[in-house]
Amino acid sequence: MRLLIVEDDQALAMFLTRGMECDGHRVRCATDGAEAIQAFRNEMPDLTILDLNLPVVDGEEVLGAIRTMDPQLPVLVLTGRQEVNTRIRCLDLGADDLMVKPFSLHELRARCRALLRRKREAKLMLRVADLELDRLDHTVRRAGELIPLTNKEFALIEHLLLHRGQCISRVELLDAIWNMEPAQTTNIVDVYVNYLRRKLKDPPPGYLLRTIRGQGYLVPSEGEMHLPMPLVISSQTSQTDQAAQAIPATASIAPAPVILLPADDPSRGS
């Protein structure tokens, strides 16, 4: 899931980032209120953790601005302010939850998971053909088989699934997944795409993950999934069964190696 952490204390922001990344989340940080509003507008994160004592724009104003842009996306307020009236104002402004500093990181992570689960309209399960990605449990399955992925591999396929049908450039992927500037010379995107293809058993040109030459990568939309059947990757299935499942009755197939002669052919034995 995509998280926005708004915290002006850099040490605490780093501590929170590492803690949330342990759950497989992709994290962006903002250190002042104005940056937070812009980051929220650009990212539309699945959840925001918001401190109140912020420079430039106060946290309560940031909360109001966030709710103006989207009244639904979960916001957890994290504050050192002890006044009950402050907490009441935050809840009235649209905060979904509130924790007072000092706090337990384990409890914070659990509260974030609870907020994400309750967000019913959030895209917690992403599917394409026989591929299923659970954004909350951080798992990927293909044809029912669990595919172990690293955090970066998971983030890459998640980003492409969230933008299904759109070609995502290498520059955008570098920024979204690795927080790297496009000026940096690297082929890390292509390397990780190859990792994914091997693990998903989706060799080039790719049924699930396709290369658009000179532009980037995409997961095709429903209408573009023109192959007849999803690939079957279960080790329980025999090669003969896989071939039978992959070819529908209407498909055009190559001639069999045995040549069948018509009944009246003179070369046919009696």
What is shown here, in short?
With 270 residues, this protein is of the alpha/beta class. It is built from nine helices and eleven strands. The chain has helices at residues 10-21, 33-43, 59-69, 84-93, 105-118, 151-162, 170-178, 188-200, 239-246; strands at 2-6, 26-30, 47-51, 75-79, 97-100, 125-128, 131-134, 139-142, 145-146, 210-212, 216-218.
What does the model show?
The chain has 270 residues and is an alpha/beta fold. Helices cover 37% and strands 16% of the residues. It folds into two domains: 2-118, Rossmann fold (3-Layer(aba) Sandwich); 125-245, Winged helix-like DNA-binding domain superfamily/Winged helix DNA-binding domain (Arc Repressor Mutant, subunit A), CATH 1.10.10. The strands form three sheets. A five-stranded parallel beta sheet has the order 2-1-3-4-5, with helices on both faces. Helix 3 (59-69) links the parallel strand 3 and strand 4. Helix 2 packs parallel to helix 3 and helix 6 packs across helix 8 (188-200). It is elongated. The model is unreliable at 227-270 (pLDDT under 50).
